[in-house]
Amino acid sequence: MSHTYSTAALFALGAALLPNLASAQDTGRIQKKDVGADGQPTLIEFKAASRPSQVEGAVLLREQLSLGTDEQMRPARLETDQLGFSHQKFNQYYKGVKIEHATYTVHARGGAVESLSGDYEKVGQLNVTPSLSATDALSKALAVVGARKYMWQDAAEEAGLKQSSGNAQASYLPQGELVIVRDGRIDAATGPLVLAWKFNIYAQVPVSRAYVYVDATTGAVVLRDAIIKHATGGTATFATAYSGTRSLADETVTGGYHLKEYTRGNGIETYNMKKGTNYASAVDFIDA
Fold first, then answer.
1. 243-275 residue pLDDT tens
2. pLDDT of 193-208, one tens digit each?
3. Which fold has domain 31-118?
C-alpha cells in the first residue's frame, strides 16, 4: 500500500527530528554533565577526541544551554592562566535585562573548548517593564538601610572619590540599575526571579555598604548583598583571618615601608582609618 505525503508534512517531520539528532550528537561528545538543584547544567565537559573548536563562545553556550529567543549570553571578560587556558566569561540577559549572579565561562586551551561551567537561570516568562521608578525605589531602599549619614552627604568623601577615580562626575550617590534577581526573602538561591532596581548604598554612620535590590513592581526590598564584610582581621605581620600567613609586596617610603603593591591586577593599597570612617583622612601604615 502506497502513501503520498505533502512537502509541508515532510518538512514538519524533519524539523521535529532535528533537535533529537542534535541532542544525540551532543551526548556523543560530552564526557560529563553536572546539574544543579534547579535542574540546569552547572558543568559540561567534552571528550578529548570531540572537543568543539574555540568559536564564538556565545554561540556554543546558546547551543549547549538551549537558550530561548529572549535570552542572551554577553561577553564580560577574558582571562588566561599559567596553564595555557583561556576563560571567557559571559553574563546572562533576559530581554536585554541583566540577570544577577548568572554567569557562564567557556574554558579553552590550544584552540579547543574543554568545558563550560557556571550558573544559568531559566527565566520562563517575566515582565521587564518596571512599575516603580528608580527614584521611588531608592527611597524605599534607604528606609530599610536606615543610616544616619551616607557617603554622598560628606563633601570631603565626594571630593576624595573624584580625585582617586580621576572622574569629576564620580559620586557615591546610588544610581539604579534594572536587573533580574532571586527573591532572597524566600531563598537567595532558589527563590522566584523578580525584576528589581539595584543600588550600591554606602552608609557612613553606621558604616555599611551593600547592594540593595528593590522589587520594581511592589517596592519591597528582596535582597541585601553586603559589600563590606565585617570580620576580625590579622596582624601587621600579614596573618590573615582566612588564608593563613601571606606575603605582600610593599614599597619603600620615607620612614620605612608602606602597604602598597602593584604586582597584581590594578594594585592593592592598604590604609589606616585611625578608627574613623572618613577615607579622606586615612593615612599609610608605615613600618621601618
1. 666 655 554 444 445 565 544 555 567 777 665
2. 999 999 999 999 999 9
3. Nuclear Transport Factor 2; Chain: A, (3.10.450)
Q: What is the mean pLDDT of residues 148-158?
A: 97
The C-alpha cell at 83 is 596553564
Which of 259, 246, 249 shows the shortest CA–CA distance to 286?
259
Full-model pTM: 0.72
Helix (H) / strand (E) element for 40: namely none
Cis amide leading into 206 (omega within 30):
yes
Neighbours of 78 (CB within 10 A): 11
Q: For the chain, how many residues are written?
A: 288
How many angstroms separate the most distant Cα atoms in the chain?
101
What is the CATH number assigned to the segment(s) 134-226?
3.10.450
CA distance 157 to 143: 22
